[in-house]
Amino acid sequence: MSSTVVHGRVVPTGLYIDGAWRAGVKTFDVTDPATGKVIAEVADATGTEAVEALDAAAAAQDAWAAWAPRARADLFHAAHRLLTERAEDFAVVMTAESGKPLAESRAEFALSAGFFQWYAEQVAHLHGTYAHGSPGGYRIVTTHQPVGPSLLITPWNFPLLMSARKAGAALAAGCTAVMKSAQETPLTGALFVQTLHEAGFPAGVVNLLHTTTSPAISDAVMDDRRLRKISFTGSTGVGSHLLRKAAGNIVNASMELGGDGPFVVLADADVDLAVEQAIVCKFRNAGQACVAANRIILHSDVAAEFTEKFLARARELRVGNGFGEGVDVGPIISERQRDRVVRLVGRFRDQGAEVLLGGEPVDGPGSFFEPTVLRVDSRDRELCGEELFAPLAAIYTVASVREAVEFANDSDYGLAAYLFTRDVSRAVAIAEKLDFGMVGVNRGIMADPAAAFGGTKASGLGREGGHDGIYEFLEPKYLAITVDETEAIGA
Ligand code: NAD
């Protein structure tokens, strides 16, 4: 097995197919976005290896589906223990390749491992139904079966969380998996499948590909009728493309896509609480989160107070290398993305937005951008509704609750919304009106293995986690069983 050392941690660099690591014909570089330096070279899969990974997943499918729920739960518990022993390896490698502050990597690790605990518990508790057939004479028995070999595609912004949340559900359900890491963050995925291997997941049950040519992988695997499921997390554009591909072979699809989270602060809100939560919800992972506060919508009665306090807190944020002591905001994932943020701020300026803080890239190595706060009067739908994905807070002011709700809902996306008010009745009434899959009431962080994560509209299809997540990888199976009491027992 070829491996490399990243900040003192040994990480496999190959492709993981059928329980073994193998080199690729080519390799590609992994770069630390905080320094711009190459930290590893990993195998670069082609469509050929993708089909080989699917061969392995298809061959392992029946045996894996037949594992007793308790045995599968025990394996998940073992994986959870092993993951936990390697917590710091994961945190360090995540910070090295994604740039996020070490404290955030540690928090991501804890949440990710929690999904293995959650699925260990859930897989032992799946149930079916039993009922009498409508006209009598038979019984209706329903159970669930794994959908089958699944393609799991993850983004770079939460490399372990996205892998653990998807693979946890797929594997717990009894599906085998071909995972495709994001090009920017292959090392975290490698540590993840290595840990599953050591925990005892059988050969072929989980496979991992890294690549610079994602379309070649998805084309090869999705054109193959053995693939029964695609679960994708990433941008809405790519998700839409993959849905069209899935339509070809009528492949079951779950999509976790982009967001445009409104963060609504009403006149009766606890402003200090709203400010603290907005700082986390906006600047965590340098704003590169699908559930980040994209439009901070303030009632005019609290707009001045919120803005002043928010600016004071944003000024305190320390930008720097994620390994640095006390660093709050790491780099943007790549120079290309940093340049996109520069252009985005320019577009806001052109629309008359006032830059209250920051607004510029940071000089030097690495792709950093200043924590930025903009006051925006425009309601240009294209600009205001764009996913910022940057340490860029856009503040809007509204004059009424109704205007706040209408503006919040005026979006193609429907992932996460946030609402700050002290009035519980109003909170419930508004939460029900918000066309989003998740609503945080007086909190800016919601992720929890026990909660169903996902969105409406262009934010996707299906849910991950909670009681629903595993059912994305299960299909109902109905048995109609003839029962003739008279013949069986006698008159
Ligand atoms: P992206 O869509 O560019 O890439 C996501 C993944 O898809 C990567 O692994 C990439 O290599 C792969 N990919 C790209 N084109 C592909 C193709 N043709 N076939 C197969 N795979 C392909 O997104 P990104 O920039 O990496 O991530 C940011 C996006 O992800 C944002 O829009 C964000 O909101 C979204 N996201 C959503 C969630 C969620 O749970 N809803 C979570 C995290 C990120």
TrEMBL record:
This is Succinate-semialdehyde dehydrogenase / glutarate-semialdehyde dehydrogenase. Residues 26-478 form the Aldehyde dehydrogenase domain. Transmembrane segments: none annotated. Belongs to the aldehyde dehydrogenase family. SUPFAM superfamilies: ALDH-like. Keywords: Oxidoreductase. PANTHER family: SUCCINATE-SEMIALDEHYDE DEHYDROGENASE, MITOCHONDRIAL. GO terms for biological process: gamma-aminobutyric acid catabolic process. PROSITE patterns: ALDEHYDE_DEHYDR_CYS (PS00070). GO terms for molecular function: succinate-semialdehyde dehydrogenase (NAD+) activity. The keyword Oxidoreductase applies. InterPro entries: Ald_DH/histidinol_DH (IPR016161), Ald_DH_C (IPR016163), Ald_DH_CS_CYS (IPR016160), Ald_DH_N (IPR016162), Aldehyde_DH_dom (IPR015590), Aldehyde_DH_Superfamily (IPR050740). The keyword Secreted does not apply. Pfam families: Aldedh.
